[in-house]
Amino acid sequence: MAIKNIAILNGRLVDPLAGTDRLADLFLSEGRIVGVGQAPAGFVAEDTLDASGLVVCPGLVDLAARLREPGFEYKATLPTEMAAAVAGGVTSIVCPPDTDPPLDEPGLVTMLRQRAKAHDLARLYPVGALTAGLKGREITEMAQLREAGCVAFSQGDVPIADLQVLYRAMQYAATFDFSLRLRPEEASLVNDGVAHDGEYASRLGLTGIPVVAETIAIAQIVQLMHATGCRVHLARLSSGEGVAMVRAAKRDGLPLTCDVDINHIHLTDVDIGYFNSQYRFDPPLRSGRDRDAIVAGLVDGTIDAICSDHSPVDDDGKLVPFAEAERGATGLELLLPLTLAWAERAGVALPQALAKVTCVPATFLGFQAGLAVGNRADLTLFDPEATWRVTPETLRSQGKNTPFLGHELKGRVRHTLVKGKRVFSA
Amino acid sequence: MYNPQLNQQGELIHLLTTEGLPRRILNQVLDRAAEFVAQGAEGNKKFNHLAGRSVFNLFFENSTRTRTTFEIAAKRLSADVINLNIQASSTAKGETLLDTIHNLEAMGADLFVVRHAQSGAAHLIAEHVQPGIAVVNAGDGRHAHPTQALLDMYTIRHYKGDFTNLRVAIVGDILHSRVARSQIHALTTLGCPEVRVIAPKTLLPTGIESLGVHVHHDMREGLKDVDVVAMLRLQNERMSGAYLPSTQEYFKHYGLTPEKLALARPDAIVMHPGPMNRGVEIDSAVADGDRAVILPQVTFGIAVRMAVMNIVAENQARR
């Protein structure tokens, strides 16, 4: 029989929603938090977790993680990536539609969600394709995709070349108050670029992707938001100018939100070193100044959330010349430690830092991630002081490639609970 | 900083780029090349430094001239030379670049001469070859063409004696040029006090100044009082389109004519890595004139490639 009542004792409760950080016990029942500090009357714990020395926080919400199903099962599968998610303390996964076939039909979304349920670990939130086949020509049946469970609509990393289509898509989405997740990038300015257009790419002879490829796209999206009233979330900013434009648009009151991925918080173009393809990302890693502006944007709230941009890539995709390498890195298990590392370096308190990966992204999905009575019992318990080395063996994801291989990171997940059930313990 | 071209003793074991190579190694190559040139002048063309070794010329990108000079250089050192032209891109379905390399290793390769369209390909190979096998970069994407730069340095030293009081202008498509990048690093390392690059803005890489060069857009201004003019080849696909409107307009502004060359020092030399586009980047009167050292460059190129292969093979063998 399933365990209904769990007591988490002696933990350091960090509630990013309330902005609190204190020692207290937590009591869960039937998938919800039913008591903080003291158990409700008549509560009998069937399972007890000793959380001494551990931080107890809402489960992490990852706004971008590719699970590679359907279509790319040789890179990763739902069971492996779900296991990686909960091992990383991620309890809610938003997956982009750039699968094969793309998530452009309600049936595909239903199938994916069914399959995810069969591996009942983390919660899955699919993002529907904005256009059929992500081809940028015909908009999808957004309302039906929404009914099938899509939380937003996106082109993945495939930009829409035709602004007329984007304009109509935003009008249509605004009709139903759907949110679009767009990665701001003007494809014609990327062309065959593979690295930040700066001194380092010039030195290495790598074709550059200029910052204007991002800022021009943001400018277009902002203008179209003014024209349509559509809500937009910008995925994975890479440049300081981009952050400044979002800051200005937010000041103007536009319903604009954005995120950045864990790699761009920590790395810059010079980290590519001698053509190390682990550092091949879209958008590219930019200059130190851009990285600093991203960190500042996180601190001042311009950037709402941090995502892992989890993209499992096998060795064949990386053991090729830099420009031919597949972009992306594994990230589900690094989201927490790399967020903690940012917080430590930037001097950000734990509740504020964890907000970027818990309660803020949760609001985009329409739920509250906090530690108050009534909140979901999706919880992550981690040791903030425990260090671990990132190696292919310590990663549960099928994707073993990341620039952080060999790095010693702080923050190790000990228990993960989803819907009040323990889904991971170490 | 870790340098994949050097062993722990600081000796050259691969030649991938001129960037980050200490001056003593550049001079070592030039000095060794000078010995081969001197021997050649005495009629000694054949040496046995690489006898019993297998040199694989691995050309993933078309080249006749560079491949031929490497082949001649290896044969003069008595190596067994195997030429492979692999036109299929490694991203096409089939064997990956490293699969190809590992297969050739199994056939007993001692030295790979590699040309590839992607920047960094030679680094990737050097990183993954078995210990004891040397890699010489014969051009990777836009990144580096170190033997070309070294033969250019040899040529400059031959005609000018020293680098420390020279002004050198590199003219043309710097953006796409691996030759220019390798020349710049070699020149600055060898102590050349003023390296200029001359090009329209469309053909200059972002932040090129960070490599220690002065940027000129006006060729007349850029050529003033230079001792060396290093011309670059303009690739056909760049001659019209978004980079440049036409070869005529390019020639008018950036083609080397006798009239523009007159602005340089009277004893200035003119180099070109070949093959030349006459009437596009260079006027025939200059190309065939007495200031051009384009054919000596080719001759020196063989000696420089002999020197490079000799040195890396020697250092690999001494492991």
**What count of helical segments of chain B does DSSP give?**
11
Distance between the termini of chain A: 23 Å
Question: What is the CA-atom radius of gyration of chain A, in angstroms?
Answer: 21 Å
Mean pLDDT of chain A: 96
Return the domain count of chain B: 2
What is the CATH topology assignment of the largest domain in chain A? TIM Barrel
Binding site for carbamoyl phosphate (chain B): 65-66, 115, 145, 148, 274-275
Organism (chain B): Chitiniphilus eburneus
Subunit structure (chain B): Heterododecamer (2C3:3R2) of six catalytic PyrB chains organized as two trimers (C3), and six regulatory PyrI chains organized as three dimers (R2).
Family (chain B): Belongs to the aspartate/ornithine carbamoyltransferase superfamily. ATCase family.
Descriptive key words:
heterodimer; A: 426 residues; alpha/beta; Urease, subunit C, domain 1; TIM Barrel; 2 domains; eight-stranded mixed beta sheet; six-stranded parallel beta sheet; 14 helices; B: 319 residues; Rossmann fold; five-stranded parallel beta sheet; four-stranded parallel beta sheet; 11 helices; 9 strands; 14% strand; Aspartate carbamoyltransferase (chain B); Asp/Orn_carbamoyltranf_P-bd (chain B)
